[in-house]
Structure to design on (185 residues):
């Protein structure tokens, strides 16, 4: 009898390619509380047990310690292209699922990500006060469909809306889902 001791492996993908037009600059290198947003995102995913971690960049390209850099040459077309690039990268790994998050969520915590990672389902979305947000967990079986439909500013929103197997997990007690749209936000 063969015993499989392999545990589920969850990678992290940070979508950070945008120009941040409402913010006035790309958000990835913005420093808040002495830490770049991109580094904070990677740290939060790592603390939640995600490995490996990839960061999809475009408008700003730079080094991000502890992460695989994915250069999205089509970043100007919208978030959908970044999701596609991140999932294409994940296809080349042996991970079972990915946690997808945005770079501009300074209130996201490792506790919130851990709750999403540990939810025993292939399709899981964080909620904040009843509103869906990030992070989102996608099991490997969903990647091909998402790669096919993600385009423009539509990442996975419509896909998630159409699924009856989506599990919603409230994380508002351990995180803030507010994104950083303007420098005063």
């Amino acid at each position: 009898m063969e015993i499989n001791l392999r545990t589920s492996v969850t990678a992290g993908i940070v979508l950070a390619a945008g120009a941040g037009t409402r913010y006035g600059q790309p958000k990835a290198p913005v420093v808040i509380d002495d830490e770049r947003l991109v580094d904070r995102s990677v740290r939060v995913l790592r603390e939640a047990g995600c490995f490996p971690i990839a960061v999809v960049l475009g408008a700003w390209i730079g080094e991000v310690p502890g992460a695989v850099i994915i250069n999205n040459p089509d970043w100007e077309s919208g978030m959908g292209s970044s999701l596609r690039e991140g999932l294409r990268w994940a296809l080349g790994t042996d991970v079972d699922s990915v946690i997808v998050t945005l770079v501009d969520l300074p209130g996201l915590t490792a506790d919130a990500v851990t709750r999403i990672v540990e939810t025993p389902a292939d399709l899981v979305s964080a909620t904040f006060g009843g509103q869906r947000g990030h992070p989102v967990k996608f099991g490997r079986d969903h990647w091909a469909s998402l790669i096919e439909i993600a385009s423009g500013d539509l990442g996975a929103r419509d896909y998630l809306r159409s699924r009856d197997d989506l599990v919603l997990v409230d994380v508002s007690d351990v995180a803030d889902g507010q994104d950083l749209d303007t420098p005063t936000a």
The chain has a mean pLDDT of 93.
